[in-house]
Design a protein that fits this description.
The chain folds into 2 domains: about 240 residues, Aspartate Aminotransferase, domain 2 (3-Layer(aba) Sandwich), CATH 3.40.640.10; about 120 residues, Aspartate Aminotransferase, domain 1 (Alpha-Beta Complex). By secondary structure, it is α/β, with parallel strands linked by helices. The structure holds pyridoxal-5'-phosphate. The site of pyridoxal-5'-phosphate has 15 residues, from helix 3 and helix 4.
Length: about 375
Amino acid sequence: MVTRVWDYMPEYEQEREDIHDAVETVFRSGQLVLGNSVRGFEEEYSAYHGVKHTIGVDNGTNAIVLGLRALGVGPGDEVITVSNTAAPTVIAIDQIGATPVFVDVHEDDYLMDVGQVEAKITSKTKALLPVHLYGQCVDMAPLQEIADRHGIPVLEDCAQAHAARHHGKIAGTMGKAAAFSFYPTKVLGAYGDGGATITSDDETAANLRRLRYYGMETTYFVVSTPGHNARLDELHAEILRRKLTRLDEYAQGRRDVAQRYQEGLGDTDLVLPKVNPGNEHVYYVYVVRHPKRDAIIEALKAYDIHLNISYPWPVHRQTGFHKLGYEEGSLPVTEKLAKEIFSLPMYPSLPIGTQEKVIAAVRDVLATV
Ligand SMILES: *Cc1c(COP(=O)(O)O)cnc(C)c1O
């Protein structure tokens, strides 16, 4: 059987009754859009994070789009972020007519090099968008200090970091607002697309609610800024409510898988993830690094193991973003990492036997490349 980096089937088999019950609950509720399940999920997601507001939306990209717009970012403004991320982080900035401004990342933890941010701030900078990449939080205290000094809001991209903690705080509770994706592969995943933006700021929350619903507060009347149709579906909201009760278990399951990789591969020349002091990593993906990455991936196919690279091309070097003017070599660490990183299978229901097979195969291959 082929082993891949992610598979939802083992989890579905375990949770089948609950998922079917969620579907039945929604189908029998008489309300398929913005009903009890979305309201319930929003309350429970806020309570989990200890924030005042959750606004459920249709995907993580729109969670960022609406988050930025709700914070007042618009055409011609600049948003400082990283190129070492999933493209949607940057696509969201582009979509609202703002300009992404990139800083490089650290070579050891792959996260935003906060020390480079202040030099990039201009009069047009309207938001800072750190990405808690792979499930580990960016060094938030110095970033927030810069943000406060310049009066610029921070929107956290938490699409990969549900339940991650940073010096005791839950990811998404440190900036002015935070965007989450519930794409099926994520640490908290729906059975299709979903997302949410959370905040404790009442005005930002009111903006988000309007923006999600065409710009309306009540039906048929656009109040100020025309918005989007970006609603979270009842079906996904109800499934997410069920799964939210298991979120801490999912995170722990991922840490258990990471622990077994550490034990099985810690003595090889593969560079394993570095967890910074004060961080609780949730390992959305388990990213390792080796100069012979391509040969390793190729050789593992003979063992029926098909791995992924998150991500093979830095956003600034994708042709759709050449318009931003970042030449090759402009973000040297990001570019170097993209050539050497790859991901091992990671999900909480990953069978131990499968993981042992992966560890043995990787050890075999490392001895020959
Ligand atoms: C998945 C992801 C997104 C986008 O979420 P979608 O639900 O796929 O739109 C944004 N940022 C990061 C870092 C992601 O991993």
